[in-house]
């Protein structure tokens, strides 16, 4: 065992100690409800002992949060974390599963609005229309394990762009690169615009007509369906056009890229967490992991 106070340092957890303290205070009650619910299922009824009686947790709640953050930040194996905290690997596995789910449910922080969080795409569009925020949307892909041979849907994860087995995450950020939302991850073979449509972006455009979203060339279909709201780079003029037309096009395209680059910065912030560089675990755990990391990153950038 090592000094557990050292493990709470930002170099290990990826968050400041102040941020860690607020996380512990926020998640303590939901975690207790999860534990009581699991014990209720095991008992098959109400508890028969007084509150606080019975066996103690070998890994207390604070240490469970720290172990989960270290796992998300550095992708340390569960066995290594068990050695650091002096418990069995299975205890760490259960702790990470519990805390990761709670982190994923938090959503993303709203800039300068303490206690308010965005969890759905409709929440983001409502916030953008109320505050007059111009959104930036983009997708990123994370390499995953190749599905087992003979299993249905194996080709769905093969990305035509990356030439790898990937899963695709769609992320929305504001003009300062602050993460506002991320979706349920999709197989890498799915087109970027299709992934956005499957999340209900067409309904959001219809219900929030004043919201504008900056996009790249991968979302030309959205620009066609929602002109004036889905904004992509300007189309290239014909070769026969005058030189000044091409110059204005180059300038407009460069300005659009400069305005949209903040969502790329948001994606880069997410990829600083090692688990999102290459996912080597079960694919069904990746959506919760990405949402958990996006929520943690949004906490840090919300006050920028």
UniProtKB/TrEMBL annotation:
Domain Transposase Helix-turn-helix residues, every copy: 58-108
Limits of the DDE Tnp4 domain: 137-296
Cofactor dependency: a divalent metal cation
Keywords noted in UniProt: Metal-binding
Keyword Transmembrane: no
GO molecular function: metal ion binding
Pfam family, one: HTH_Tnp_4
Protein name according to UniProt: Putative transposase
């Amino acid at each position: 065992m090592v000094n557990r106070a050292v493990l709470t340092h930002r170099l290990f957890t990826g968050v400041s100690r102040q941020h860690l303290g607020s996380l512990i205070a926020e998640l303590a009650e939901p975690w207790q409800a999860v534990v009581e619910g699991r014990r209720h299922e095991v008992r098959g009824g109400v508890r028969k002992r007084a509150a606080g009686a019975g066996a103690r947790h070998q890994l207390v709640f604070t240490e469970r949060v720290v172990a989960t953050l270290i796992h998300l930040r550095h992708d340390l194996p569960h066995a290594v974390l068990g050695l650091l905290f002096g418990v069995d690997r299975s205890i760490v596995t259960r702790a990470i599963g519990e805390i990761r789910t709670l982190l994923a449910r938090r959503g993303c922080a709203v800039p300068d609005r303490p206690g308010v969080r965005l969890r759905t795409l409709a929440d983001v569009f409502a916030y953008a229309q109320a505050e007059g925020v111009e959104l930036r949307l983009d997708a990123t892909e994370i390499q995953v394990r190749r599905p087992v041979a003979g299993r249905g849907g194996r080709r769905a994860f093969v990305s035509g762009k990356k030439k790898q087995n990937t899963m695709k995450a769609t992320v929305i950020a504001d003009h300062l690169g602050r993460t506002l939302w991320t979706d349920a991850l999709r197989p890498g073979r799915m087109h970027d615009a299709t992934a956005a449509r499957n999340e209900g972006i067409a309904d959001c455009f219809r219900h929030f007509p004043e919201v504008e979203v900056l996009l790249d060339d991968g979302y030309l279909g959205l620009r066609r369906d929602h002109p004036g709201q889905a904004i992509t780079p300007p189309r290239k003029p014909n070769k026969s056009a005058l030189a000044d037309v091409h110059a204005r096009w180059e300038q407009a395209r460069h300005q659009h890229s400069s305005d949209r680059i903040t969502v790329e910065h948001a994606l880069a912030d997410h990829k600083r967490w090692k688990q999102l560089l290459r996912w080597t675990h079960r694919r069904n755990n990746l959506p919760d992991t990405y949402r958990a990391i996006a929520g943690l990153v949004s906490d840090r950038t919300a006050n920028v």
